[in-house]
Design brief:
This is Delta-aminolevulinic acid dehydratase. The protein is α/β, with parallel strands linked by helices and 325 residues long. Helices cover 38% and strands 18% of the residues. β10, α8 and β11 form a beta-alpha-beta unit. Bound molecules: ligand PBG.
Length: 325
């Protein structure tokens, strides 16, 4: 026998030397939820270990992330008042805008990315303006522009549209440029599937649609070619970073988009992926740390450059310890 693949597995130093996938703490993004009010830090029941912070308290979440080596956060806002048109989403003094200002004032080194969508702000929980029971694509675009501009004015470093309206990347790029925000990148949720893995998030963000589902705007999970189509359209429209979401059940899509495009690629390991690991571990069925590490590496192995995950702090520590990467 000449070929003995096991030779390269005989010791830890050699195993680590021949690793094909390298991870960096620079590639991690921690989502944070900002809720209206004062002096609030409350654990989210559907996402153990994640918190609702009021704007005055969100610094704590940011500080913990920084301490763990995470340099980037993705912000979601939970307004008290919701209406048909999601007006709180573009209120210059809205909950998210307050949170952005608080973070950028106290921790200017933290990169702040904001989710651009309407579902947390609309009374009906859909991601745009309704025409009857349908989300009206073209009437929604100007609202997304207003939201992105208000985030940019509050100090957001990057905007990340997650609404899945057609043409929104071009609309946002044009609006940002016209208003002097030529250097604010757009991270597009280019390939976002209609997924049951968002369940815990919708509970955390209060964004479950009041009727129907999101299948008329988010993608059908039977499709992979369509993912490439969506990604290439966003490249044409001026996206700076592409994203695939969810991650674990879509590793083939991550690989495909990585191969067919040239932009940096983010993957969002969503709330259901996190909650499944937490739930199984809490019952003693799996080793939480081991499964977390293995899952994170698999997403980078598939081709992601950036990982958005509720485990960002823990993965960062695992990288620093040398357990992965
Ligand atoms: C807003 C949005 C959602 C998520 C990110 N942005 C929910 C949805 O589309 O229903 C999901 C994130 C997660 O599950 O962790 N549209």
């Amino acid at each position: 026998m000449i070929n003995r693949p096991r030779r390269l597995r005989t010791g830890e130093v050699l195993r680590k030397a021949v690793r094909e996938t390298r991870l960096s703490t620079d590639s991690l993004i921690q989502p944070l939820f900002i809720i209206e009010g004062n002096n609030i830090k409350k654990e989210i029941s559907s996402l153990p270990g994640q918190y609702h912070y009021s704007p005055d308290m969100v610094g704590e979440g940011v500080e913990n992330a920084l301490k763990a080596g995470v340099k980037s956060v993705l912000l979601f806002g939970l307004p008290e008042h919701k209406d048909e048109k999601g007006t709180e989403a573009y209120n210059e003094n809205g909950v998210l805008q307050q949170g952005i200002r608080e973070i950028k004032q106290r921790y200017p080194q933290m990169q702040v990315i904001t989710d651009i969508c309407m579902c947390e702000y609309t009374s009906h929980g859909h991601c745009g303006i309704l025409e009857g029971e349908k989300v009206d694509n073209d009437r929604t675009l100007p609202y997304l522009e207003k939201i992105a501009l208000s985030h940019a004015r509050a100090g957001a470093d990057i905007v990340a549209p997650s609404d899945m309206m057609d043409g929104r990347i071009n609309a946002l790029r044009t609006a940002l440029d016209k208003n002097g925000f030529t250097d604010i990148p757009v991270m597009s949720y280019a390939v976002k599937y209609a997924s049951s893995f968002y369940g815990p998030f919708r509970e955390a963000a209060g964004s479950t649609p009041a009727f129907g589902d999101r299948k008329s705007y988010q993608m059908d999970y039977h499709n992979r070619r369509e993912a490439v189509k969506e990604a290439l359209l966003d490249v044409e429209e001026g996206a700076d970073i592409l994203m695939v979401k969810p991650a674990l059940a879509y590793l083939d899509v991550i690989k495909e988009v990585r191969e067919k495009t040239k932009l940096p690629l983010a993957a969002y390991s969503v709330s259901g992926e996190y909650a499944m690991i937490k739930a199984a571990a809490s019952q003693g069925l799996i080793d939480e740390y081991g499964v977390m590490c293995e899952s994170a590496v698999s997403i980078f192995r598939a081709g992601a450059d950036i990982l958005i995950t509720y485990f960002a702090k823990e993965i960062s520590e695992a990288i620093k310890k040398g357990d992965i990467g």
